[in-house]
Amino acid sequence: MKKPWAGRFKQKTSGLVESFTESVSFDSRLWKHDIAGSIAHAKMLSKQKIIPKKDASAIVKGLEKIAKEIATGRFRFKKELEDVHMNIESALTNKIGAAGKKLHTARSRNDQVALDLRLYLREETGGITSLILEIQKSLLKIAEKNADILMPGYTHMQRAQPVLLSHHLLAYIEMLQRDRSRFEDCMKRMDVLPLGSCALAGTTLPIDRASVAKELGFSSVSKNSIDSVSDRDFAIEFLSCSSVCIMHLSRLAEELVLWSSEEFGFIEISDTFTTGSSIMPQKKNPDVAELIRGKTGRVFGSLIALLTIMKGLPLSYNRDMQEDKQPVFDTVDTIKSCLEILNKMLPEIKFNALRMRTTAGEGFSTATDLAEYLVKKGMPFREAHEITGRIVLYCINSNKDLISLELKELRAFSLNISRDIYTALEPAESVKKRTSYGGTSPSEVKRQIKQYRQMFRK
């Protein structure tokens, strides 16, 4: 099959080279965006009188027919045509004749692929932010439904202080809110039209890039043609945002794995989102959560791959950049699948409220409340901290917990301690009094839930 650059070459391209350099096996997923960009480009060429109106009309109709063929599975992509762009252009020329050869006027595959990838990522990023919002809404519903459940809060994986389960879940909503914000901010830099930059230097033809930007819904036009074709920052930034997001999903997945274990016993994951063992009949494994945790490495790897591809490239376009798509495509598929399955799994999780409440009061979790009690009696915090530490050591040596100590035992450490200390040592009371902004008290968590509910309605 004749190559578009055949005029310069005496010999045919090696079949081995064709197999090595083709990208249509993976970039064919850009067909919608390639056709949309080509239609907008053809309309502009006609408007600017660069090609006849009748040719532009034939091009648009031909491209629309090709789009229907691809959508219905009747189109055959050919590897010898290298990529999605040449496959569509070749099919167009076969359909409408010489007019199809005019489509590539005032553009290069360099700016064409940059356009397609921006259009694709703009669409997919919008979909990902919508999926993140659905996860947030699911977490909010679970938090509201289980608003009063106490659980131990952890630092260093050691029981630290009692908190509300709802407060813990809201932490993930906050993390995901930052993810949405990052993706939305990334879209601003993605939303720039590169088409019209051609190979790298622009064109001598009187094109109207602004009209193409308007047709395709871009908010601005790239300012430097060299940068336009060599820029993949928007893809790297997308992969970076995805890496942070899936890191958050992995942390949530890790807690689901831990909480569903016999050692924790906080939750039971639905049978529909767990698997069994081929040898141990009793097993119920949190495979979905484990796979989310595992797939995080793929997304991190994609980010490193594209950074490595780009790090040593001179301006402007280099064929190395063909390798940008597979990391992007894999990340899109991976993060979407993780968000979708997690959103289905979360509402079916059952919480063991009794177990969580019981463990919330263990491990001297209200020791800080004892120290703050002494602070309220006028004692410097460092002194209160040391006294409380000695009381905890006494409990360990006596095999007791704080709330089981008699008043005389407590007063042996400080005469500032009175009978009202026992209220302060109750986990539920500890939580109730943590009313600082963003804290774990029921009143503060209720305010946070209301705030999120209003935010998600917008």
Distinctive features:
single chain; 458 residues; mainly alpha; Fumarase C, Chain B, domain 1; Fumarase C, Chain A, domain 2; Ribonucleotide Reductase Protein R1, domain 1; 3 domains; two-stranded antiparallel ribbon; two-stranded parallel ribbon; 19 helices; 60% helix; 5% strand
Quick overview of this protein structure:
This protein is 60% helix and 5% strand. It is mainly alpha-helical and 458 residues long.
Detailed description of the structure:
- There is one protein chain.
- The protein is built from 19 helices and six strands.
- By secondary structure, the chain is mostly helical.
- The chain has three domains: 15-105, Fumarase/aspartase (N-terminal domain) (Fumarase C, Chain B, domain 1); 110-147 and 160-352, Fumarase C, Chain A, domain 2, CATH 1.20.200.10; 359-457, Ribonucleotide Reductase Protein R1, domain 1 (Orthogonal Bundle), CATH 1.10.40.30.
- The strands form three sheets. It has a two-stranded antiparallel ribbon with strand order 1-2. A two-stranded parallel ribbon has the order 3-4. The chain has a two-stranded antiparallel sheet with strand order 5-6.
- The protein is elongated and about 100 Å long.
Rg over CA atoms, rounded to whole Å, is: 31 Å
How can the largest sheet be summarized?
A: 2 strands, antiparallel
Question: Helicity level, as a percent range?
Answer: 55-70%
Distance between the termini: 54 Å
Q: Give the number of DSSP strands.
A: 6
Mean pLDDT: 95
Q: Total number of helical segments?
A: 19
CATH architecture of the largest domain: Up-down Bundle
Order of secondary-structure elements: HHHHHHEEHEHEHHEHHEHHHHHHH
CATH superfamily of the largest domain: Fumarase/aspartase (Central domain)
User: How many domains make up the coordinates?
Assistant: 3
CATH class of the largest domain: Mainly Alpha
| Structural class by secondary-structure content | mainly alpha
Do you know the CATH topology of the largest domain? Answer: Fumarase C, Chain A, domain 2
Choose one word for the global shape: elongated
Strand content bin = under 5%
The largest beta-sheet arranges its strands as 1-2
Low-confidence segments, ≥5 residues, pLDDT <50? none
